[in-house]
């Protein structure tokens, strides 16, 4: 224990006096002497004090920096080691040390010393020390601005903790100079939020709000932080007690690139979605519909059409009394839902029509916006010139919504869309102006004019306008679905419109009906008992359908305030998604600025696959002019079942009937989901006069498949079905590229309704251009007794049979019949039949030397089969016969066969070769000019007679 | 055991282009800005130090209390900064080297604009997997 009178204390006093008298050498030597003593005695507090003084001595002597620092360090750590009693001393020592370093220009080291002291001190002290540390970083070279900012923030925090808000704000504000425009988002938010909050606490709300505005649109923060920011913001806004106008408020974010002005000049749209359809689609559709502008041109030099004074002006045109719509996307960057109310457009309407003057006016306004951000209230009270819509929405967290704003000009003039204003949570009014740069682009190039935003609109005098929609157009339909729809048009203005025309993009799916169809009850109106001579009508519409341009009857005018309806037939032709575009053209009754307008409608229909119908037709080998038809129907729906109603052949030429053997079986065919069904039918050509069997009454062009009987038959020759069939025929003919189709089928089926409340759904499937598998111009048939009884003990048997040949082609035909006695078993099967006819090579060989050719080919043919057997019968009348057949005529060739033994024989070993003589030389007939065919099997039983 | 590890890639314009909290400690919201402040301040030191050495790995360049900032500087002066409280320098070095490879792959992408934010989720998962591999002391994983 060292008392005041101890030797060490005396020496300490001596050295302190020496220090005061600036004899630093003496002081230092004494301090060093003392320090060893104190160290040995473990008197740490005194040791540290001596070390501190020797450090100062070293510094004053300016001899050894290292020693000075070492001493200070030693003193500092020793003070800290002895606990709370050395705290103040440590701080003092640190301050000396820092001052020492600063004097020598070692600012960086000084700041670390300050930082070390600050850790040990209460918050207010540490705040001051941290601020000093920050200043040291600023003074160090090179300057360490980021460290400066960081330590200022730390200092500010300490000030705040010690309830020194003003100082805290001062420290943060200084730090803001460093962190201004900082991409480190969390830092930025923290600084702005704290500055804003503390200003708010201090009662300086406007600055507080300004800072908080920087952070309220932070999307990267967590939900709690976002709500904290927002709550504080609204709290301060409410404490100000007035509504704030904020330019470019970041909440919600308006996506200015999504901005679109929809103005209806001569083009009007049925619904908002139709606006988004590409303009070129409409233009293509309306090509024939609207009068071309070239009519107005007087000669070829006059390239600029003078029809409208607005055409030359680049500004768009809108009509007084009709709303100009503006679509814009707005996004909530936060995870909290925000309430945005009163979203409206800021507009100017100048009633002065002088374009140049208005231009000057608007440019002045633009400059105004750019420089001073004029208050919005001047635009608001313009109620007598135009009205703006107000929209209130709630945006959920992270939600993006597309909104539509409207402005309805009431007087003629120039309307200028300036910007958007909105109210956030009933307290903050945000407003944003549209970029002016897009307008400059407008002036530069015509190309860009359409795409870029045009905010200047010329308001013209009020016009009549039609609005329209298609009633109950299905969004989903099965393939083949046939429906009667109604097109409703409403004229909302006082003036009448006339000369209405319509164009439909897909005449295969929708065709306009007849005015009488409107009151018909579907589908009963299609039934057969309603007989009318509508064929002539359908002929007329066919012409319209071709161009898909439909003109309403001349007399039709839609008076102001009335609704007009017109029937439309809908038929879902093919599965898939398709977009249906309708464009209606109408002219004004009175002369106006715009002579005509168009109403554009757009619908999307999804057509689901239902029944898949295919037909396979093969020639009937036992009868002439008859075909066997196999109809395969597959139900492709996952859950619905369909009942087949009827199958019809188009036209009067063909008759369809069931196969004779199937007469007794009733054709109740309901096809459940994912099932397939095959039916066989017989069709007969009724048109040929040489038809062997007379058509009996039961054969018609329709066959009923449902149990309902003949009352349920639909008339396929009536308007909608024939028109759709004509479209299908045209379309399928284009696809298949079949030159000549044999016949067309229409299969009508009904959806089996699960719930009876649904109205009857009718489906019609059109399969066109069906043709037989092999199409020969010549038909032939063997006729003769099937059973012969003969006594072979007397002589060989002679059987008389005849071959009936019919020419079904349109030209004269030469037919040769060649019989051969070898037995050709293979000839009965179809593939060898074809190969044999191919071998015949009759396409190349002329008629004169055909016998040789036949002989040679037959020679090879018979050589192969010579080993098989010898023919048990012999053709005995002739080896070849030739007949000339006129179109649609038949000939009979008598044949005789010699049989040597009883048994069953197949007289099919003959061949037919024909050549079609085209009437015009040089004109090559579609497919077949010549050809050949093997005989059909004809079995005869020969019995041994008594 | 690295309970705190904040990894940031800073482009040469001092803009953070990738940020990830890769520590095993549960993420605290109020610490996010804290880490940013420390890393941002450490950039000053890196700026001095980067030109004094040939090595890309600058070891620990700065500390704040018990948090250490280790930095790796690529040839294009993009800085990988890791704020951590563990001491395994070897692990950190290998971590930086592997991340550098990943970063080069990102750079090779012709659609990536140099200096823009790295939004690739593939990159993110890879970096996190590397952090688990190198920054956590054995026994935890």
Automatic annotation (TrEMBL), chain A:
InterPro entries: Ig_TPPC8_1st, Ig_TPPC8_C, TPR-like_helical_dom_sf, TRAPP_III_complex_Trs85. One of its GO terms (cellular component) is TRAPPIII protein complex. Residues 785-911 form the TPPC8 C-terminal Ig-like domain. Signal peptide: none annotated. Residues 276-442 form the TPPC8 first Ig-like domain. Pfam families: Ig_TPPC8_1st, Ig_TPPC8_C, TRAPPC-Trs85. SUPFAM superfamilies: TPR-like. This is Trafficking protein particle complex subunit 8. It comes from Aegilops tauschii subsp. strangulata. The lineage of its organism: Eukaryota, Viridiplantae, Streptophyta, Embryophyta, Tracheophyta.
Automatic annotation (TrEMBL), chain B:
One of its GO terms (cellular component) is cytoplasm. SUPFAM superfamilies: SNARE-like. Coiled coil: none annotated. GO terms for biological process: endoplasmic reticulum to Golgi vesicle-mediated transport. This is Trafficking protein particle complex subunit 2. It comes from Aegilops tauschii subsp. strangulata (Goatgrass).
